[in-house]
Design goal:
The complex is a heterotrimer of chains A (420), B (982) and C (97). Chain B is α+β, with helices and mostly antiparallel strands and 982 residues long. Chain B is built from 25 helices and 52 strands. Among the domains of chain B are: 213 residues, FAD/NAD(P)-binding domain, CATH 3.50.50; 111 residues, FAD/NAD(P)-binding domain (3-Layer(bba) Sandwich), CATH 3.50.50; 65 residues, no CATH class; 87 residues, Aminomethyltransferase beta-barrel domains (Alpha-Beta Plaits, 2-Layer Sandwich), CATH 3.30.70.1400; 98 residues, Elongation Factor Tu (Ef-tu), domain 3 (Beta Barrel), CATH 2.40.30. In chain B, a hairpin with a 2-residue loop joins β39 and β40. The relative contact order of chain C is 0.25. Classes of the chains: A alpha/beta (420), B alpha+beta (982), C alpha+beta (97). Chain C: GO terms for molecular function: sarcosine oxidase activity.
């Protein structure tokens, strides 16, 4: 892999861009690998990269049904933060944020991770105290976080509704300055390029249609391009987890598959500097991209779906929040809406775990938050696959936690996916 | 010479302002038409390269320049001048240029653009350090440069409307096909809506030479009672189950700016027409380069000549319609046809109109004025096939009208998941078949007669599908209809060169994506269309690829050596064109964001001086300040008053559910963790309900009004979820005879609390409410101030207390009487904050403790979880994680230094081990008048058993205050309940 | 998206709440209260992953409040059938003059 640099950009600019080569190779599959990762999204590619980098595995393939990065990796609202509280979540998301901070250099790919801060708005004392507990926990466990008074929030976000007539007046907010947004495609391509450079095979247009078994173990996959044997098969197919896990024989799973919509406005000169989030009348989150579009979203549509197709009723839900919090947005025009299919787990937390089936590993259940988790997810999943046991950081993300009464219910909403 | 108004275009003048200059347009103009008529050529600067751009189209495919309209809070950026209706007083200005449109410093980017190739930013701006510093420094500059127009950060002062509508047939588009379809469906008696995005109905017929015919057709249609013609109304999206999203722009002076129609249509006909696309050549973006169809529209519909000297460069037949129209308007027209042989009949007509026809020639590169860059001529060459040409000679031109082919607007059918297919013959995607019917140019039918035939056929099919007619389907028109097939021309490239090099050839002018960018993406492995689009950002600009999407796909296919025999369809996401966000919110915005719930006592509480606080959607009386009092002072006084005499509080927001039936007692016994079946009639009991997973859902009281009649009260915050919980379990236990009805708003209530509360209750009821007649936890249905009332002796404060519930119509009398009686006893109203102080002093829990994470044991109430019966949540409460002895348990905390103020959310640590997340947290605090200090409730691993009397540090880095506290049991006051019975 | 409530008629999906998968009989939705935790873990936390047609329980929460038995396709969002989930509601509807 020839490293990218400013000098290279300059030189190629002067010489007609002739020097650039493929960022990653689209390989034909080999008959056998040590590890086959099913799913060429961010998590799958990151896992392959860390398997090669941290664990020295060389015969690793990522099998992607279509093109890499076209699922949730390319459909999210790109928020990166670590404001999680529960033991298990807290350490994992802090690890991911730390990986993010040095990831552009590590991958030699500009992920445009911009730590402009994440501001969770507070409207009432109950919310403030609940979040004070969360941010105190963050502060006591190595993360940053602070309370901003109403006037401090207003100074940072003068476009929010500060009027007397606001239905829910903003009383302040919690800021995590190290949080922010990144470029979602860059994360996919950066991991793909770095993994490819370490010998990982990225195989596109290769749909896994079944699993090869010997005894009780899984020893490979059947694909649209033939059988591929592997010592270990690792799923990373959020949004398609249910059908594939069923084929693998995992049976019922503690998750439901839902659709989540996202929206972007026409490009505007910068107005929204931080990531803004609110939990009033349901979730809302927004940021403004470097191209100028205000990217925002709310909650899932509320019923299981495998269609990347949202309903008009959700527009109204989300946009009532958008234009009530930031009244200038009423005049701003919506440019595009899209929908992704997400794994909603029964406690709102993910799974990175070996399975009861030898040779099969499981990464799923990312709910609203898979994008930010990508580096640590890959890091931990690679460890889990290489060692056949979870790392301490993902030990809590097991499948049997429900049977043990060890749910990781960050929102304290109970076993109802639409409430997480 | 630049654009001018043609003679004979008689329309009233409309004054407007462009770039601070007063101008006159004509009624019926778009802003683009008016600008062209005023000789304006450069309208804005491009996104990345800051190249001067002009008007390139006459519709939503406008990719030339976006403008900003209005001022102050009504500033609206990024509008396409080609679709902005000219109104008197309109104020418009150019965007993305500084200090001026003509001298734009950002234009240096054009010089630097060799560096700004596709995806260059992924390769640089990282810096050597393993952090984000360098990138963020660079990003500051990048953000400043990006973003197109500037919005006003001020609140939008305009209002938006949102309505639901129904129709049998929704026809999108009012061109020849749409009107024909509407007529056919209407004749079958169907209720038809025709939605037209333009401010004028008629589509392509607006460019007819004789406007009378269209006017007559419209008048006829409009006269039908079952047809609604809606101009200024765009169908922006189709959703599941026949839901269509329509946005209507309302005229100035209407109460709303725009309106969302959520239209439930039984059948949708897409008569959305087609967009003309150009093809790519060197510097194809100068002001003066526009689509041939647009040039024709400006001449014919608006009576505006975009310039005198015109070159039309076409690769297909419809370019002739443009050159003929322009020549007939008296303009000098040279027509280059990329095809070797011109279609004979059209060629003859063109020549007869005075067109200088040159078959086999193509433009290679344009030239512009040194300063502004506007078009002044072009190099042309013989077409050597496959887009190859060598610049051979120059032609002067002020307008270059380009036609590469047509792209049917298949957005709506694609949104309805009808997969489009590529037609190599027509050089376009044709809509997929399915529920949504397509007709006219939207179905690739180019001719006027064909479009009308196809429209009628679609209208008939809609009528048949809706069983409105027994007639047979009509014969549809075939797609196409041109005299000669189009040349598959996507790009003219200098022969023998792989890249354009210096002369930039734009595929997507709005995002400054060039054909070379597309090829570079492929070279770097972004060779699939979806990857290429993401890498180059092609198609992501405000036109969403309407101008360049198909060309980009074709350029990519050619670069991959695949030819353009088959292109993969792209996805179109709603909305079809940008729509204001305000329409979706409609009235649910600002103060109307969410409904306000007020209790029946609200007005009286307000009159008594209450300050209200939001509790969910409710406004609850928070405190009743006397002059000079703040929240703390008032609430402490109120709490002290309750303990000294009596207080009256509004508790109407408590959730209320009535459970009735033979098995009502058995039902509640299964629902609650503690026994309920043995509750005697006339008694109330405190209870805990668990979720299925064993976590406490809520707490509340159960009043047994009769053997088969119960009232369940629950907390304000959980009223809805608890009512749903009960309804769900009633459904799951059909064997039980019980009904569940939420009656939260059917009753309102006051709490009377304090040692003198009985006197108040006596005054209200006139009944015997002595301890014998109404003991602690007694329930009675009696009259209060002459109205039926439900009274229970229940206490949240630890004082003798009663809850009195009446119907809302009796609220005013009850409040007045209660306040009068309380006043007589030296008491008065108290609010939510005092209620909270009183309960913290007693260690009673609320939502701050029942936070969705606790078991009955965590609340210090293991005894409430019955061992003698089964109930919802018991099974899963017996999982290991919920029985873990290390779980935090409710404790009370008082500061070591009496003046120290602990805050909610502080983390509890054993002294000397003050790192990490600690052993628990502070959940509630209260400035207790009874104890004279700020006390707190919280949770600590091991609970009072482990920590009673020991010191804990409440760490609170968020507020910066750490408070040393002594732990104990959660109850601070009257642990034996003497006051309750006293 | 719309659902046709058998009591109220066609309504916007925003009026309804998705409750979960539906077995077809209210009384088999959950194990007996006395059942072992394992049976409850399965009922409360574990789900089949129907990609295509599925039977679901919905409630017309912001309407008549009835529980509804909905046959729906999770790939196309097509709603094949909506019926009362509670036999008592169905009987009451039939008994209506």
């Amino acid at each position: 892999m020839r490293p990218y640099s400013a000098l290279d950009v300059l030189w190629n600019g002067l010489t007609g861009q002739r020097g650039w080569t493929r960022a990653w190779r689209d390989r034909a599959p080999r008959p056998a690998y040590d590890v086959v990762i099913v799913g060429g999204g961010g998590h799958g590619l990151a896992t392959a990269y860390y398997l090669a980098r941290n664990h020295g595995l060389r015969r690793v393939a990522v099998l992607e049904r279509g093109l890499i990065g076209q699922g949730n990796a390319g459909r999210n609202t790109t928020i990166v933060r670590s404001n999680y509280m529960l033991p298990g979540n807290r350490e994992f998301y802090e690890h991911t944020l730390k990986l993010w901070e040095g990831l552009s250099q590590e991958l030699n790919y500009n992920l445009m991770f911009s730590q402009r801060g994440h501001l969770a708005l507070s409207f009432d004392p109950g919310f403030r105290d609940a979040f004070a507990r969360r941010y105190n926990t963050m502060r006591m466990t190595g993360a940053d976080g602070r309370w901003l008074s109403r006037s401090e929030v207003q100074a940072r976000a003068p476009y929010l509704d500060w009027s007397q007539s606001a239905r829910f007046p903003i009383e302040g907010g919690f800021l995590q300055q190290r949080a922010g947004t990144a470029r979602h495609d860059a994360l996919v391509w950066g991991f793909a390029r770095a993994a490819d450079a370490r010998g990982v095979h990225i195989v596109q247009n290769c749909e896994v249609t079944g699993f090869l078994r010997e005894g009780g173990a899984i020893v490979g996959v059947e694909t649209s391009r033939g059988e591929i044997r592997a010592e270990k098969v690792a799923l990373a197919v959020a949004g398609s987890t249910g059908p594939l896990a069923a084929k693998a024989g995992l049976g019922k799973l503690p998750l439901e598959t839902h659709k989540l919509q996202a929206f972007v406005t026409e490009p505007l000169k910068p107005i929204v500097h931080q990531v803004i989030s609110s939990a009033r009348q349901g979730l809302f989150y927004m940021s403004q991209s470097d191209k100028g579009g205000v990217v925002f979203g709310g909650e899932i549509d509320g019923h299981p779906s495998y269609a990347q197709r949202g309903g008009l009723e959700t527009y109204s839900e989300v946009m009532s929040k958008a234009v009530s919090l930031a009244p200038f947005l009423a005049r701003t025009r919506l440019l595009r809406q899209w929908a992704g299919v997400v794994d909603m787990s029964m406690d709102g937390s993910p799974f990175i775990t070996p399975t009861p089936i030898p040779g099969l590993y499981f990464n799923a259940g990312w709910n609203y938050g898979g994008f930010k988790a990508t580096p640590a997810s890959g890091w931990c999943y690679a460890h889990t696959i290489a060692h056949d046991a979870p790392h301490e950081l993902n030990a809590a993300f097991s499948l049997d936690r429900f049977a043990r009464g060890r749910e990781l219910d960050e929102e304290a909403a109970g076993p109802v996916p639409r409430l997480h | 010479m630049s654009g001018f108004r043609l003679r004979g275009h008689a329309a009233p003048l409309v004054p407007f302002t462009w770039q601070g200059r007063a101008m006159l347009g004509a009624q019926g103009d778009t802003l683009a038409a008016a600008l062209l008529a005023n000789g304006v050529r450069t309208v804005g600067r491009s996104f990345k390269h800051h190249r001067p751009r002009g008007i390139m189209a006459a519709g939503e495919e406008e990719a030339g320049a976006l403008v900003t309209l209005g001022e102050g809070a009504r500033t609206t950026p990024n509008l396409k001048p080609s679709v902005v209706e000219l109104e008197a007083g309109l104020v418009a200005r150019a965007q993305n240029c500084w200090p001026s449109l003509r001298f734009d410093l950002g234009a240096v980017n054009d010089r630097l653009s060799p560096l700004f190739a596709a995806g260059f930013y992924y390769k640089t701006f990282m810096g050597p350090f393993a952090d984000t510093r360098i990138w963020m420094a660079c990003e500051r500059l990048i953000r400043r440069a990006a973003g197109m127009g500037a919005a006003s950060p001020l609140p939008d002062p305009d209002l938006y409307d949102r309505v639901h509508g129904h129709c049998d047939v929704l026809v999108a588009g009012s061109g020849p096909a749409g009107l024909a379809a509407a007529r056919e469906a209407a004749d079958a008696g169907l209720d038809v809506v025709v939605a037209e995005a333009d401010f004028a109905l008629g589509g392509d017929r607006l460019s007819d030479r004789d406007p009378q015919e269209l006017a007559a057709a419209l008048a006829e249609l409009d006269a039908l009672p079952n047809v609604r013609l809606m101009a200024r109304t765009m169908v922006f999206g189709l959703y599941d189950h026949g839901v269509a999203g329509l946005v209507e722009r309302l005229p100035a002076g209407a109460p709303w700016r725009e309106r969302l129609h959520v239209m439930h249509a039984r059948k949708v006909v897409a008569a959305t027409g087609a967009l003309q696309r150009g093809f790519v050549f060197g510097d194809n973006d100068r002001p003066g380069v526009m689509s041939a169809a647009a040039a024709r529209t400006y001449v014919r519909r608006f009576g505006v000549a975009p310039a005198r000297e015109v070159v039309v460069a076409g690769a297909e037949d419809s370019a002739y319609a443009a050159s003929i129209a322009l020549a007939q308007a008296g303009l000098d027209v040279i027509h280059l046809d990329a095809r070797e042989a011109a279609p004979p009949a059209l060629a003859e007509r063109a020549r007869a109109a005075g067109v200088d026809l040159r078959p086999g020639w193509v433009p290679v590169r344009t030239q512009g004025h040194a300063l502004g860059g506007e078009l002044r001529g072009l190099s042309v060459g013989r077409h050597l096939g496959d887009g190859r040409a060598r610049a051979e000679t120059r032609l002067p031109a002020e307008i270059l009208a380009v036609s590469g082919g047509w792209s049917p607007s298949i957005h709506l059918t694609t949104q309805a998941r009808q997969k489009p297919a590529w037609s190599a013959e027509l050089g376009c995607f044709l809509p997929g078949e399915g529920e949504v019917l397509s007709c006219g140019a939207a179905a690739g039918v180019w001719s006027r007669e064909g479009a009308e035939t196809s429209g009628r056929a679609a209208g008939r099919l809609a009528a048949i599908a809706l069983k409105a007619t027994r007639r047979r389907p009509l014969k549809d028109a075939d797609p196409g209809g041109d005299e000669a097939p189009p040349a598959a021309l996507w790009e003219v490239r200098p022969a023998g060169r792989a890249f354009h090099g210096a002369g930039k050839a734009y595929v997507d002018p709005l995002h400054d994506v060039t054909a070379d960018d597309v090829r570079l993406a492929r070279q770097e492995g972004f060779e699939a269309p979806e990857h290429m689009k993401r890498y180059t950002t092609l198609g992501m600009a405000p036109d969403q690829g309407k101008a360049g999407g198909v060309i980009g796909l074709a350029v990519l296919a050619v670069a991959r050596g695949e030819g353009t025999g088959s292109l993969a369809p792209t996805t179109f996401r709603p909305p079809y064109a940008p729509v204001s966000m305000g329409i979706f919110a409609g009235p649910d915005r600002g103060p109307g964001w969410a409904p306000v719930r007020r209790t029946p006592f609200h007005a009286q509480a307000e009159a008594a001086g209450a300050v209200f606080v939001d509790a969910g959607l409710w406004k609850r009386a928070w405190f009743f300040p006397r002059p000079g009092e703040d929240l703390t002072a008032a609430s402490m006084r109120e709490a002290a008053m309750v303990r000294a005499t009596v207080g009256v509080a509004d508790v109407s927001t408590l959730g209320k559910v009535e459970v009735q039936g033979r098995d009502a007692a058995a039902f509640l016994d299964r629902i609650f963790a503690n026994p309920m079946a043995n509750l005697p009639v006339g008694r109330a009991r405190y209870g805990l309900l668990l979720r299925e997973d064993g976590i406490v859902l809520d707490d509340g009281t159960v009043w047994r009004l009769a053997g088969d009649r119960f009232l369940v009260t629950c907390t304000t915050a959980h009223a809805a979820t608890t009512a749903e919980h009960l309804a769900r379990w009633r459904f799951r236990w059909p064997e039980l005879d019980a009904t569940v009805d939420e009656t939260t708003e059917a009753w309102c209530g006051l709490a009377l609390a304090g040692p003198r509360s009985r006197a108040v209750l006596e005054a209200l009821t006139g009944a015997d409410v002595s301890d014998a007649a109404l003991p602690h936890l007694g329930v009675r249905e009696i009259e209060a101030t002459g109205a039926p009332a439900r009274v229970a002796r229940l206490s949240f404060s630890g004082e003798r207390a009663y809850e009195v519930m009446v119907r809302p119509e009796a609220a005013a009398a009850l409040w007045q009487a209660a306040l009068a009686a309380a006043g007589a006893e030296g008491g008065g109203p108290y609010g939510l904050e005092a209620l909270d102080i009183l309960r913290v002093e007693k260690g009673h829990v609320t939502g701050r403790e029942i936070d969705g994470r606790v078991t009955p044991g965590d609340l210090g109430m293991p005894g409430m979880a019955s061992r003698a019966k089964d109930y919802v949540g018991r099974a899963l409460m017996e999982r290991e994680g919920l029985l873990d002895p290390a779980r935090p348990v409710l404790i009370g905390l008082r500061p070591v230094e009496p003046g120290a103020k602990v805050a909610g959310g502080a983390l509890l640590h054993p002294l000397g081990a003050e790192t990490g997340r600690g052993i628990g947290h502070v959940s509630s605090v209260a400035d207790s008048p009874a104890l004279g200090m700020r006390i707190a409730l919280g949770f600590a691993a091991g609970g009072p058993a482990r920590w009673d009397g020991k010191l804990l540090m409440a760490k609170d880095p968020i507020s910066g205050r750490d408070v040393k506290m002594r732990a104990g049991p959660p109850c601070f006051l009257d642990p034996w309940g003497e006051r309750l019975h006293g | 998206m719309r659902l046709t409530c058998p009591f109220c008629g066609p309504r916007d999906v925003a009026e309804f709440v998705y409750e979960g998968p539906f077995s077809g009989a209210p009384q088999t939705e959950r194990p007996a209260l006395s059942a072992a935790p394992a049976a409850w873990v399965e009922a409360v936390f574990l789900r089949d992953q129907p990609r295509g047609e599925t039977r679901e329980l919905w409630r017309h929460l912001h309407g008549c409040g009835c529980f509804l038995d909905v046959l729906r396709d999770t790939l196309t969002h097509e709603v094949r059938a909506v019926a009362f989930a509670d036999p008592a509601d169905a009987a009451a509807m039939r008994a209506k003059p």
